[in-house]
């Protein structure tokens, strides 16, 4: 269980810390996430993608030749964000950590089952040779164990930090 801190400087006076269980559930059920990686020239690269929460970490996929993968080869630092565009309701979450390439077929099979359970039959992957395979090609799977997570509540406004 991570340590949680409510930052009163950026929170309404009546705000209380959002429990880690609520934040973890938000990460698990979100449909779309935004991944930020760092380009070789140190500029950010941001892209939407789908992901799953498995074994206390976020997992996402990318092709080996995609910009995300090329960025990760040089710098594994990432931020994954999810939330809502509403100003006065919901919970926005930012996960910061390092992306690690998964190659273990047993873990990848569990991940593939999680993708299909969450996103449906269209996201069924065959696992072999340390990667996901599907009609569109081969996808590498990356795991991001949180180093720090921020949760931004909106009713009331709150800024929460969870360190691992």
UniProtKB/TrEMBL annotation:
<dbReference type="InterPro" id="IPR012349">
    <property type="entry name" value="Split_barrel_FMN-bd"/>
</dbReference>
<protein>
    <submittedName>
        <fullName>Pyridoxamine 5'-phosphate oxidase family protein</fullName>
    </submittedName>
</protein>
<dbReference type="InterPro" id="IPR011576">
    <property type="entry name" value="Pyridox_Oxase_N"/>
</dbReference>
<keyword id="KW-0560">Oxidoreductase</keyword>
<dbReference type="InterPro" id="IPR052019">
    <property type="entry name" value="F420H2_bilvrd_red/Heme_oxyg"/>
</dbReference>
<dbReference type="Pfam" id="PF01243">
    <property type="entry name" value="PNPOx_N"/>
</dbReference>
<feature type="domain" description="Pyridoxamine 5'-phosphate oxidase N-terminal">
    <location>
        <begin position="21"/>
        <end position="131"/>
    </location>
</feature>
């Amino acid at each position: 269980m991570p340590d949680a801190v409510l930052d009163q400087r950026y929170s309404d006076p009546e705000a209380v810390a959002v429990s880690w269980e609520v934040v973890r559930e938000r990460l698990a059920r979100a449909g779309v996430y935004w991944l930020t990686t760092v380009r070789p020239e140190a500029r950010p690269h941001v892209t939407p993608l789908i992901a799953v929460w498995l074994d206390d970490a976020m997992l996402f996929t990318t092709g080996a030749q995609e910009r995300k993968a090329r960025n990760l080869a040089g710098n594994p630092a990432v931020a994954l964000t999810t939330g809502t565009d509403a100003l006065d309701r919901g919970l926005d979450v930012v996960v910061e950590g390092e992306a690690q390439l998964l190659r273990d077929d047993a873990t990848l099979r569990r991940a593939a089952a999680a993708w299909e359970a969450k996103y449906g039959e269209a996201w069924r992957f065959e696992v072999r040779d340390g990667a996901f395979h599907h009609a569109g090609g081969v996808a590498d799977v990356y795991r991001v164990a949180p180093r720090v997570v921020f949760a931004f509540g909106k009713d009331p406004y709150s800024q929460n930090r969870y360190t691992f």
